[in-house]
Specification:
Elements lengths: L1 H18 L5 E2 L2 E6 L2 E2 L3 E7 L12 E4 L5 E3 L1 E2 L3 E2 L1 E2 L1 E9 L38 E4 L9 E3 L2 H5 L1
Parallel strand pairs: 2-12
Antiparallel strand pairs: 1-9, 2-3, 2-6, 4-5, 4-10, 5-7, 7-8, 10-11
């Protein structure tokens, strides 16, 4: 009988630890393209959206794209993946990109105004974003985003 009680207590403790471990995370990978080309150095941010039943679904996930535009989200700077459920998506360039100069130079001369940083990703994908993505329970390798910049539409 004593062994049965001990076993039950151990099972209950293990279950409690497993349940209290935080939100459920699933792996998320994908590709960011800008004007139909893989986009390097894009910061991809997923922020879980709460609802009445779960107003605080957990922390966001973030990733940086490689030279092929590929990314793997990381939750809480530790675990690969994102919280299962609906997320607000924001994508922006890591440090911005300088616009091309007709003279070919990239730095301003002493006394001149500093060069403005150009963000090729439109604001509706970053500070004005209302883009969303649903992370499924099993995760996904299809979190793909094909962004068109307004500048390319003028050409």
């Amino acid at each position: 009988m004593r062994r049965l009680v001990t076993t039950c207590i151990l099972c209950a403790c293990t279950a409690a630890v497993g349940c209290g471990g935080g939100p459920e995370i699933a792996p998320v990978t994908g590709v960011v393209k800008l004007n139909n080309k893989p986009y390097k150095d894009a910061v991809v941010s997923f922020q879980p959206i709460g609802d009445k039943g779960n107003p605080n679904p957990g922390r966001g996930s973030v990733a940086l794209t490689d030279e092929n535009g590929r990314f793997t989200l990381v939750y809480d700077n530790v675990k690969p993946g994102a919280v299962i459920g609906k997320h607000q998506v924001r994508i922006f360039t890591k440090f911005g990109v300088e616009p091309p100069s007709p003279e070919g130079g990239g730095e301003s001369a002493p006394g001149e105004a500093p060069i403005r940083i150009f963000e090729p990703i439109p604001p509706e994908w970053n500070e004005l974003s209302n883009k969303t993505f649903d992370v499924p329970r099993g995760g996904t390798k299809e979190a793909n985003f094909d962004i068109s910049s307004k500048a390319s539409k003028k050409n």
